[in-house]
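Reviewers asked in the last cycle whether our approach scales beyond single polypeptides. To address this, we selected a multi-component target totalling 1118 residues and predicted its structure end to end. The input consisted of the following lines:
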Amino acid sequence: MTARQKILVLGGGFGGIFAARKLARLAPDLVDVEIINRTNYFVFQPLLPEVAAGAISAADAVAPIRALLPKVRVRQAEIVAINLDEKRVEVAQGTGRRRIQVGFDHLVLALGQVADLSRVPGANDHALALKSLADAFALRNHVLHCLELADVTEHPEEKKRLLTFVVIGAGFSGTETVGELADLVGRSLRFYRNIERGEVRFVLMEYADRILPELPQSLADYAVRRLTGRGVDIMLNTALASVTNDAVTTGDGKTIETWTAVATIGNAPSPLITSLDLPMQWGKVRVDQYFRVAGFDNLWAVGDAALVPLADHGEAAGYAPPTAQFAVREGRRLAHNIVAEIRGTPPTAFEYASKGALTSLGMQKGVATVYGVRLTGFPAWLLWRSFYLSFLPGWATKIRVAVNWFLDTIVPRNTVQTHRFQRPATRYIHYRAGDTVFEPGMRADGFYMVLDGAFELLIDDDSLDAPYRKTYRPGDHFGERAIFGKGAYVGSITAIEDSRVLVLRAADFERFVAAFPAMEQYFDDYLPAAFPPALLGRAESVAEDEPEPMREAAGGPSD
Amino acid sequence: MTARQKILVLGGGFGGIFAARKLARLAPDLVDVEIINRTNYFVFQPLLPEVAAGAISAADAVAPIRALLPKVRVRQAEIVAINLDEKRVEVAQGTGRRRIQVGFDHLVLALGQVADLSRVPGANDHALALKSLADAFALRNHVLHCLELADVTEHPEEKKRLLTFVVIGAGFSGTETVGELADLVGRSLRFYRNIERGEVRFVLMEYADRILPELPQSLADYAVRRLTGRGVDIMLNTALASVTNDAVTTGDGKTIETWTAVATIGNAPSPLITSLDLPMQWGKVRVDQYFRVAGFDNLWAVGDAALVPLADHGEAAGYAPPTAQFAVREGRRLAHNIVAEIRGTPPTAFEYASKGALTSLGMQKGVATVYGVRLTGFPAWLLWRSFYLSFLPGWATKIRVAVNWFLDTIVPRNTVQTHRFQRPATRYIHYRAGDTVFEPGMRADGFYMVLDGAFELLIDDDSLDAPYRKTYRPGDHFGERAIFGKGAYVGSITAIEDSRVLVLRAADFERFVAAFPAMEQYFDDYLPAAFPPALLGRAESVAEDEPEPMREAAGGPSD
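The resulting structure, written as C-alpha cells, was:
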C-alpha cells in the first residue's frame, strides 16, 4: 500500500486545470491535489480579444476554478518562491504579509509564460498586453478613452495619435485583436460626432513575411482580405524598434505616432521558473516525453511553460505547439503519468496530432482548418465559439452563455468604459529627443525623476528680461514646483535626448510629502537653491486636481 | 428672434440626463445642450447593490449617455472649477494636463451628492461606498476576496473578521445591499470547503429606530422578517462611532471586528458646489419652485444636489425627496422652465406627488407601495425590475436585458473576482490602541509614516541580550528597513495609542527611492543613526514580493 501523495499544481491555465482535474479523478484514493493560481477563475485566453472588444462579457469568458475542480483544493495566492529541496512553495495570500508554506510530494509547473518585451526599449512600460482579464478591461477602457478624447481635442496631431491603433504580432492573438478592435471602434463611431471614419487607422505589424503562420497560406490570405477590407493596414517584414510615450518606431526607421500599442509578442518564462536553475530551451523548461524535468522524479512541467517533445517525431523532429488544444491533452497525459509513477507502473509517452487550428477575425468571421478541412467566414467563427462552449462546466452554464452569444448577434452589448481612466501611482515614461513633456498652461500631473537622458526647461514670457533655461539630467527631478503651487506650468519641458523618467502621480506625491517631514524639508531647501526668486510661487493658481475628497483609499483586510 | 443659447448641464444622473434630453427635444431651434459627466455612461444607481452582488452584470445596469442623448453634446471630463461670473466651467479631460474652458449661457447643477463621512473617524479611509460602478466592482471583489482568505487562513480571529460584513444605514440602499450581500455569500459558500454557514455574520446598523423609513411600517416589518430569516443581524438605534483597519465601533461602545464596512450614509454636497458660495441648506442648494438658484437668472439646480420645495405643500411643508422618481420629473420640468425663461414666458412651479416607493431585498424578493397598494415578495421585485427596464434606450436593449434577467433566474451568473485585489499606492490607515501592525515573520508591504498617535517596535529574540524597543511618533516612519532588506519583520509593531498612518506601497516606495538620489541618501544616513548595528541587515532574506516583472505601468495618452 502506497502512502497518500500531495500533488501541487502551480498555475490555472489549460495545462494546470486539466492536469488537476484528471489527477483528482484518476486516483482519489491515492492523491490529494491542490492548485495555486493568482485568480480564483480560469480564463479562456483565446477569447480575451473579444472581451477587450466588448463582443462578449467578461463573465462569459471565465469559469470559477472551484466549479471546474470540485475535488481539488483551490488556493488563490501569489507564488513567491519555490523550494525544490525542501519540497515546499511559499505563497502570499491577500496582501501577502504572512508567509505561507505549502508542501508537496509532486510539483507540476503549469505557469505558462509571461509577456516580456524588455529587449525593445520602452515596450514593457508603454505597450499594452493581452494576457489576463485585467489586460482585456484595460485595453477596452483605453480604446474608448482615446475615442472620448479624440472627440473633444482641439489639437490635430493629438487626434491623429489618439485614433491610431497599432497591434504588434500577427499570430492568432494579434490578428484577432486587430479585427476585434476595428469592430469595437467601428461600432462606436456613430456616438462620436467629431470623428470621421477616415481619421481612424489600424496597423497590424509583423516581423515575419506573412500573418497567421500556424494556418495554411490560403486561410491567411482570406484573413488578409477581410482585415484590409475593414481598413487594417498590415505591415509585414517589420521589426519593432521602440515604444515611447506617443509613438512606435520600426526597425527600418519608420515612426508611427500613436497612443495605443498592443503587443502580442515577447513571451518569456515566469521569473519563478527562471529562479529554479532548470534545464531550459527557448524560454521553456525541457521535459522528457513523460513531462518529467530531467534530474527529478517529482518535478513535472506542462503547457506553455514546458518544451514537450512529440513522441511520434522524436526529439529532434518537433515539440508540442503552445496552444490550448495541446495543453489540454498534455495535462491529461501528465496526470496519468504521475499516477503511474506513484503506483510504480510505467509511464506513457505523450502523443497527439493536431486536429486543426482556428481563430476569429471579429464581425462573426473566422478561419479554421479542422481534420484537413478548411473553413472561412461564419462557419469557422461558429466552430470557434462552439469549441469554447465545450469547455464550460455544466449544461446550465453552457446554455446561458450560448443564449447570450445569440443575443449579441441581434443586439450589440453596451460598450461602456466601465472603469475610470487612472494612472498607476508610479510609472516609467520613455521620450524621444524633441518630445514635449509640458507646455505652458498645462497642469502638473506628477513628480518626474530623470533616469536617463536629459530635459530642458524653458521659461520665456514678458515678465522676464531673458528666457530662463535649466537642464535636468539623471538624478534630477521636475514637476514639484507646479504641484506645490497647485498650479500650471509657466514654461515648457522638452526632452533633449532620448530619455526615461519615473513619475509619481501628483496626488500621491502631495500626500507623501505632507506626511514625511524629511521630504518636506528637502524641498524647502531645494527650491530656493535651484530657482531664482522671480520664478518661485509663480505657478498660476487653479483649483485642485481632484475634486472628490475620498474613496480612493477604501479599507480592506490586512492579510 | 432670440439668439441661440448654450445650456450646460453638469452631471449625468437622473436629474441631469432627463433635463438635457428634454431641453434638446423642446427647443432644438433655440438651444445647444452640452452635458459633462465623469463617465461616458449613465448608471442606474438603485441597481448598484445587485451589481455588487453579481446578480446582474454591470453592462445591464448602465447605458451609454451618447445613446440616451443623441441630440446633446456629451463631454466625458472631470469638472475642475465653475466660474459663474465669467460663465465658464474648467474641465480636465484624459489625464487633465490641459485646462479646457467650456462656456455657457445657462448652467444646470445636477451633480448629486458625494459620500462624506469625515465626521466619523476612519470612515472615509476604511468604509466602502456604493455610489459608482467602480464602487460596486470594488465591493464584490472585496467580499469574494474575504471568502478566499477565510477559506485558507489559520487564524481564527482573522477568519471571524473576514466573515463579518457590516452595512451602515438602513435606507433603501443599505437594506438592499445587506440583502444582496447575504445572497452573494450564501450562493458562493458551496465552493469554499472550510467555511461553515454559521461562521458568516451580516450586520445592518441603523441610527434610527426602524429600517426603510421611506416605506410604511408594515412593509418595513416584512423586510425585517425576510432579512433576519436570512441571518442578518439588524442593530437599530445604533450610531457609528469609528471605523478602523479591522473593526467598527458603535456610539454605545460596542466593537464589531470586521474587514468589511459598507457605508450608505453620510451625503455631502459636491466640493464644486461648496466652492460657489450659494445659498445652502442640509447640504443642498436652495432653489425656488422653478429650480432657480436665488440671485441668478441663469443658474439652476436639480436632483439630489438641490433642495426643491414642493409647490403643493408650500416651502415650510415639504421638499422633494432624493429619489430617482422625483429627479426625473424635476429634470423635465426644469427643461420647460429654462426654455420659458429664454422665450420670456412664465415658468411653471414644480408639482409632483410620489406614485409610491419600492426596493429589492435580494433573492427575488422586494417591497413596494404603488398608488397606495402595498406589494411584497416576488411581485414587488418584478415591479422593481420593470421600473428599470422602462429607462433603457431602445426596444432591442430592453429585450436583451430582460432576457438576461430571465436567464439569471434559471442559471446564476459566475461571480468571479474579476479584478486582482490591489492596494492603492498611498492610503491612510487608522489603528486602535493595542492593534498589531506587524508580527515577526510578516513581510513588509509598505513604508509607514506616522500622522497621529504612537507605535512601539519590539524585537525580542535569543540573539539579543535584552528586548529592543523603539517608539514612533508623528513625523516618524517605519517599514523601510524590511523593504530594503527584501525581508520579513524580525520584531512586532503595535499601536500604543489610537493612531493614523499614511502608507506608501512597497513596490512604489522601492521604485521611488531608486529614482530619487536625495531619498536614497536620506535613508543611508537615517538607518545607521536610528538603529544599533546589530539590527541592521538582519531582515531575513526572502524572495521579492512581485514575481511579475511588468504590466502594472502600461502606457497611455498624455492628455
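Residues 123-265+357-410 of chain A form a domain with the FAD/NAD(P)-binding domain fold (CATH 3.50.50.100). We regard this as preliminary and will revisit it once experimental data from Aim 1 are available.
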